[in-house]
């Protein structure tokens, strides 16, 4: 159902729920003996499920399993498959440095080939092309774009997509204030930039850093989703790398005709300070512009208890 436009911008053409770094373990064990990754994924899943009809894809940008275990991947699918079914969203999986290619393919992509080559994919979302790029290095935690991946990506991007392209990879090509994370950064970024130059890439989505952040690479907006496992504390003393049991989030990516906007969604249950429901919105939509300004823009005194 189409709704009246209330402001300058039309509704987004595509919406993606962008999750990252779930880091599940076999048997649902706590990460590091402390972080309850299962509950955090369940909470995020519940929040995404509320957006039924409002999202087109659920993209998980790597480190889905902490040790690449089959059972860990099965648990993530068990949490997100029902959400995808309920919302009508496409599930998109991206390889991370903690993932292992053969079990990743076997459990998440239903591919029993045992293929150990990079897991690169192209997904069409009603004209929006999602290209997932495998930046993992077997046996290591830093990232690299292998020559075969760069050649493949170059060929994919040779022709534009109707609604443009989003590239997703785990090791986002973006600066970080965490010095130790520089050791684990993406290699061959210059070659990556050359492949992306003058192509239809509208945004780059990534993970790996364990905190939400944004920037640009080769003139393209970059959005990094926060981790669902644990969060890096950027307020820790300089030259310290501290992960905390809190601050978890995922992102929403809204793709408009001429812009991409990303927003951070805190994961958890929180008390409401204010709330306007669907009935109120419908009442505002039924008014003309002057009526809308009077109904919702005009300043009024807050009424509080006590």
Automatic annotation (TrEMBL):
Q: Would the keyword Iron turn up in this protein's UniProt record?
A: yes
Give GO terms: molecular function aspect only: cyclic-nucleotide phosphodiesterase activity; metal ion binding
Pfam families hit by this protein: Metallophos
Domain (Calcineurin-like phosphoesterase): give its ranges. 16-212
Which InterPro entries does UniProt cross-reference here? Answer: Calcineurin-like_PHP, CNP_phosphodiesterase-III, GpdQ/CpdA-like, Metallo-depent_PP-like
**This protein's UniProt keywords:** Hydrolase, Iron, Metal-binding
| Protein family | Belongs to the cyclic nucleotide phosphodiesterase class-III family.
Name of the protein: Phosphodiesterase
- State the organism named in the record: Agromyces kandeliae
């Amino acid at each position: 159902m189409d709704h009246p436009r209330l402001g300058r911008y039309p509704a987004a053409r595509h919406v993606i729920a962008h999750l990252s770094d779930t880091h599940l373990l076999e048997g649902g064990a706590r990460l590091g003996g402390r972080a309850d990754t299962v509950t955090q994924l369940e909470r995020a899943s519940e929040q995404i499920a509320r957006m039924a009809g409002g999202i087109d894809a659920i993209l998980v940008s790597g480190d889905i399993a902490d040790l690449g275990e089959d059972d860990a991947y099965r648990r993530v699918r068990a949490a997100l498959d029902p959400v995808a079914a309920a919302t009508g969203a496409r599930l998109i999986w991206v390889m991370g440095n903690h993932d292992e290619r053969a079990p990743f393919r076997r459990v998440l992509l239903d591919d029993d080939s045992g293929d150990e080559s990079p897991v690169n994919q192209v997904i069409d979302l009603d004209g929006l092309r999602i290209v997932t790029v495998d930046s993992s290095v077997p046996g290591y935690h830093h990232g690299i774009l292998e020559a075969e991946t760069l050649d493949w990506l170059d060929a994919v991007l040779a022709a534009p997509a109707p609604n443009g392209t989003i590239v997703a990879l785990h090791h986002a090509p973006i600066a970080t204030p965490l010095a130790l994370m520089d050791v684990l950064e993406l290699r061959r970024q210059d070659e990556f930039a050359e492949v992306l130059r003058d192509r239809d890439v509208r945004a780059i989505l990534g993970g790996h850093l364990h905190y939400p952040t944004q920037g640009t690479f080769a003139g393209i907006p970059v959005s990094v989703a926060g981790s669902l496992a644990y969060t890096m504390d950027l307020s820790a003393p300089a030259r310290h790398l501290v992960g905390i049991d809190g601050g978890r989030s995922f992102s929403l990516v809204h793709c408009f005709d001429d812009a991409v906007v990303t927003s951070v969604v805190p994961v958890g249950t929180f008390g409401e300070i204010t709330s306007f429901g669907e009935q109120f919105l419908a009442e505002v939509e039924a008014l003309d512009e002057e009526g809308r300004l009077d109904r919702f823009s005009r300043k009024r005194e807050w009424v509080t208890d006590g």
